[in-house]
């Protein structure tokens, strides 16, 4: 009898662009505003302000949809792409569970208000009491997105620098080869003419490569400045 042991691998970290990170930070920050708007419109709906209930329901749908996009990903967004973000939502703080509870409370409050239920006031009170603690957690989540953005920026800068150094090394090696080739060609006289042409082409390529590296370095420095 054989026993098969399955290895459970941690989710791989997804590479994200600066544009995607900016969208994620904005989306996470907007959740705070939406949660407050839900409560405000729910209070106005309880006081029977025209249109407040419909606005509250629409804002709740937007809040819930945004949460799904952040956690699961959609429309080019990667979801929880790093261990830090997975821990922020599903770790000890249980932010994802708290958000789900807020959505449940908001749904119940708006339903009770819409039906003019005797439970409406109690449901609204429960929703109001939940929003301030939630705001603190949403703020912490946004901070994690910002930290991830800075971490990835540092990592990308390090990778770019390593690439630049590698290209410089290749250019240096190519320059040495082309120089030695020209020496060999000059010694070979007539039989080395074709080789001299090749060596000359290598020299041209080396110069172009060095120019590309220089332009890339200047462009990167300008972006950082």
From TrEMBL:
For this protein, the record's Pfam families field holds:
PilJ (PF13675)
Occurrences of domain NarX-like N-terminal (ranges): 21-88
Q: Which SUPFAM superfamilies does the record cross-reference, listed alphabetically?
A: Methyl-accepting chemotaxis protein (MCP) signaling domain
Q: Which domain of life is it from?
A: Bacteria
InterPro entries, per this entry? NarX-like_N
What is the protein's major site of localization?
membrane
A single cellular component GO annotation: membrane
**Where is the signal peptide, in residue numbers?**
none
Compartment list: Membrane
Keywords assigned by UniProt, alphabetized:
Membrane, Transmembrane, Transmembrane helix
Concerning Gene3D superfamilies, the annotation shows: 6.10.250.3200
Membrane topology designation: Multi-pass membrane protein
> What protein am I looking at?
Pilus assembly protein PilP
**Organism per entry:** Paraburkholderia ginsengiterrae
